[in-house]
Amino acid sequence: MYRRKVELRGHILDSHILPRVLDAVIEQGGDFAIEEISIGKTNEDPSYARLMITAPSEEVLEKVWEAIQPLGAVLVTEQEAALRPAPQDGVFPEDFYVTTNLETRVRLPGGWVQVEGIEMDCGIRVDPVARRAVCVPIHRVKRGDLIVVGTQGVQVTPLERPREREVFSFMGSAVSSERPKGLVIKGIAREMRAVRRRGGKILVVLGPAVIHTGAGKYLERLIRAGYVQTLFAGNAVATHDIENALFGTSLGVSLASGEQVPEGHSHHLRAINAVRAAGGIRQAVEKGLITKGVMYTAVQAGVDYVLAGSIRDDGPLPDVITDTIAAQEAMRALLPGTELALMLGTMLHSIAVGNLLPARVRLVCVDINPAVVTKLVDRGSFQAVGVVSDVEWFLRQLALEILDKENEEAKGV
Asked: What is the pLDDT along the chain (413 residues), one digit of tens a residue?
């Protein structure tokens, strides 16, 4: 019989960490014995459990360990992380440790070191002399970089369920079109106000449906009120927003009447052409070509934005980054300080940005299709709260909730 002794610390019961670990052990063909357990009695008191994990073979024991280590299990007999040099630029050594989006530490000579810039699906580069460990995507690795291999000496801290009831509770990602959306929006608005009070950043990831449905005006109000610090989108969002600013249409459809207008199919190309002639979106705003819309408001408010291109883009606009890796790097550069992300009507951008964010960043994914939220969660962004809704209704209600509350507070109501 093969054995490993592991321990768990934190709010391991009310966050369902201990039951999940025990289930994973059994599912992988192992067994366990609880040698010691201590239950915290207050919200501040952590709990502790020490387990003896057994398995019929080394292979099964390794599978058990790989299943429970991401849940926060730590070997009692702590080993230092194994390091191996990268064989060439852009290539990790074999058996490299693949990161999650959870807070991670690695054990080096002298103790544990926090991994900086954690995100999922990357490796960990270590500088033993400086005692630094940094999350690194595969395209950034250089030949000779020391990379963590295997799982020994790696500690992951799972997200814990908040002790108080709130919209971002640990199990809040369940998706249903029958959830009380009004209460969810009140909770999101409350969290957005809290983030801004403590100086955190709010990121909005949006798809063209925000423009097509006429919801842009509500997003503009949130931007002007200081509730958006960063925008991530694609060519279509900016193009149709500027099309609306210049021609009053989106995809050739009048946002005032909802009717297709003559020659409307050409409006988005004419908008792209006008901005290209001006030299870019900021230049078009400065020259007075664009005088309204989401992009205009973002430029005027000093909101940072990244427009990432795709194979289907017309134009594109000069601001669009057509190199995928360059677009990822531009997004990464703007993420520090982000505490909350709203993902509105865009599946691919939501998943892409979710991959870049640590699990501590709270996500709200809004889409009329519940499968979008499910896919986001399935790909690792399990902290996401899903709202199955038309984005126009969601943004309208959110703007009303936030701005009306501010007006009431200003009046002393």
From this structure: 788 899 998 888 877 889 999 999 999 999 999 999 988 877 677 889 999 999 999 899 989 988 998 888 888 867 899 999 999 999 999 999 999 999 999 999 988 999 999 999 999 999 999 999 999 999 999 999 999 999 889 988 887 655 444 555 543 444 455 566 778 899 999 999 999 999 999 999 999 999 999 999 999 999 999 999 999 999 999 999 999 999 999 988 988 888 888 888 999 999 999 999 999 999 999 999 999 999 999 999 999 999 999 998 999 999 999 999 999 999 999 999 999 999 999 998 999 999 999 999 999 999 988 888 788 877 777 788 888 889 999 999 999 999 876 666 666 65
DSSP-assigned states of every residue in 202-264: EEEEE-THHHHTTTHHHHHHHHHTT--SEEEEEHHHHHHHHHHHHHSEETTEETTT--B-TTG
CATH class name, domain 78-163:
mainly beta
- What lies within 8 Å, CB to CB, of 131 at 6+ separation is 108, 110, 113
CA 9 from chain center: how many Å? Answer: 25
What is 181-411's CATH superfamily? putative lor/sdh protein like domains (3.40.50.10690)
Third-level CATH fold of 1-77: Alpha-Beta Plaits (3.30.70)
